[in-house]
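re: the backbone from monday

yeah here it is again, tokenized this time
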């Protein structure tokens, strides 16, 4: 089975990002590049450099705009080395289809993932500020089904929603899960965390892990040591 760990390159310079790629490329399945790195350095530069350094890439720029504009952005990130990129599922089915068509028309043919409900959002905020009534998990499942109907390969969601999404969309519909914390790492600003083993046990396909790997506690050692330790922790669950 492939390595499910995607290390988040949450740094703001290219040398810092490439140092992590160098240290981690043999220990993780790929690298997540997001708003911090891409708005500082430029997404094309990031994709070309991380790919040249031997890393496979998840472009986490969460596109949401009119279908024509999202298609143009999707074309721009559908480059060699990009495994997948994401769009907000609440941008609607036409927007998701436009992203998918652009990805499929490229030589790289990256997968497209839908963002369901941001893990930073709780039910009260969803209900009262965004004015989506009902349970948060129902909204996440609804958006996952919409993403699936638009042809997307999977969604980004919280570990707490994986089981419900798999039940509604099937085991092959992939889930990419942030908010993962080994027992030996600090929670930082993540709230509803699960350990890597728990996250795999509930059915997640990819784990997005940042600070526990990129800035591990001293007792753990290097970023590579942290990634190896996490791999050992999930090995038992995945057999
Ligand atoms: O350092 P940490 O493991 O918390 O990093 C998690 C990564 O996943 C960060 O890049 C964060 O932006 C991202 N993310 C998240 N929650 C989401 C979507 C993305 O934590 N819902």
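seq for it, each position gets an aa:
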């Amino acid at each position: 089975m492939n390595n499910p760990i995607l290390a988040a390159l949450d740094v703001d310079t290219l040398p810092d990002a490439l140092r992590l790629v160098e240290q981690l490329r043999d220990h993780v399945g790929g690298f997540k590049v997001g708003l911090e790195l891409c708005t500082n350095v430029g997404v094309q530069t990031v994709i070309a450099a991380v790919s040249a350094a031997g890393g496979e890439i998840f472009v986490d720029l969460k596109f949401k705009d009119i279908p024509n504009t999202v298609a143009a952005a999707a074309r721009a990130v559908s480059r060699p080395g990009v495994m997948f990129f994401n769009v907000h599922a609440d941008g609607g089915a036409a927007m998701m289809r436009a992203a998918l068509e652009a990805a499929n028309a490229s030589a790289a043919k990256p997968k497209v993932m839908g963002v369901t409900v941001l893990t930073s959002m709780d039910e009260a905020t969803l209900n009262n500020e965004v004015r989506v009534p009902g349970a948060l998990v129902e909204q996440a499942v609804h958006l996952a089904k919409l993403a699936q109907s638009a042809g997307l390969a999977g969604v980004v969601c919280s570990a707490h929603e994986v089981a419900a999404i798999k039940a509604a969309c099937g085991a092959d519909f992939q889930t990419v899960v942030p908010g993962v914390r080994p027992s030996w790492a600090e929670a930082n600003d993540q709230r509803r965390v699960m350990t890597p083993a728990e996250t795999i046990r509930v059915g997640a396909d990819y784990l997005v892990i940042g600070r526990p790997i990129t800035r591990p506690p001293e007792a753990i050692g290097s970023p590579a040591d942290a990634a190896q330790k996490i791999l050992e922790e999930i090995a038992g669950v995945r057999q």
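The chain has one domain: 5-238. The chain is about 45% helix and 15% strand.
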